[in-house]
Amino acid sequence: MNKVLFEKYIDELNLDFGNTDSLLNKIKLCSYLVCCGASIELESYTLNNKDFRTGNAGMQLTVGSPHLRALIPFFYVGKDNPVKLRGSYVTGRAVIEFAGREFFEITVLPDMVTGNENISLEFDTLIAAVPEKPYGIRNCCYRSIGKPCAFCILKKKRVNLGPKDLAAAYGEIAGKTGAEPQVLLTGGNSGRKDRGLLKYIPYVKELRNHFSEVQIAIEAAPPRDVLCLNALIDSGIDTFAANIEFFSAQTKEELLPGKSEIELEEYKQAFAYCQKAHIKTF
Length: 282
Ligand code: SF4
Description:
282 residues, alpha/beta, TIM Barrel, 2 domains, 6-stranded mixed sheet, 29% helix, binds iron/sulfur cluster
C-alpha cells in the first residue's frame, strides 16, 4: 500500500487530536494496525526468520487491557507507514505515534517459541499453514495459475512441518503457558474436488490422539463436494471456517481473480453440512 492510501485510511478514522489516548482512538488505531500495519522502531526486534504465510502472522500487542489488542502483520511492517510503533522489545513497552504525536502506550507481547518456525502462537491460538504433504511444498492453486488473491502473501515453498511437529509444539506451549491453546490450521487451496482439505487430516489425527481436549479449527475453502468434509469431520475437528472475503461479485472478481470461482452457494452448503454434524462454523 502506498503512503497516499495510508493517509486516506487515517483521514477516515477521524482521530481525536485533542484527546490522543481516548478509548475510541485506541480502538480505531488497533483496527488500523491490523489492516494497514505500521512502521516499527523497536529496540532489539528483528523480522528475521518469520514465516510470512498469511495476514494472521504478526507482532502482537495489547493496549492497557488484554481485551484490547492488535496484531501487526509482519507483511505490513514498512517504513512508509505514517503510524509508528516505537519502544523496546526487551521491556515490551512502546508507544503508538502519528503526525509527530504520541497517541498511547502499548505492551508488545514476546514471540513465543513453539519449537518450529512454521508454527506460531498468536494470542491463545497455535497457528500453522500446512504444506500439501508433510514436509512438502506449501502452495495455492490460484498462485500456480497466476491468479492469487490481491492480499495473498503465501508463497510457494518447502515447509519443514509435519504432524508430529504440531503435536510437539502444542505440548510445548501447553507446558510453558499452563493452558492448552486452540489450534488453527490453514494452507492454500488445491484444484482437486476437496480443494485441499485432505492435507489437514494427519495433523488433526495426531493432535487428537495425543490431546483429547484439543480444540481444532480448519480455515479453508469449502470443497467442491460437501462429502469431502466427511473425512475431516471424522478425524476430529471442532470448527470449520471459510473466508468468503467479499459478498460483492464485482469486488471478488477484482481482488480474488482465482478464488472467486468458489460460489457463495458452496460456502453455504459446507457450513450447513458441518452444522448438521455439530461442527462449529464461521
Ligand atoms: S486462497 Fe487466495 S489468499 Fe488463500 S492462499 Fe490461495 S491465493 Fe492466497
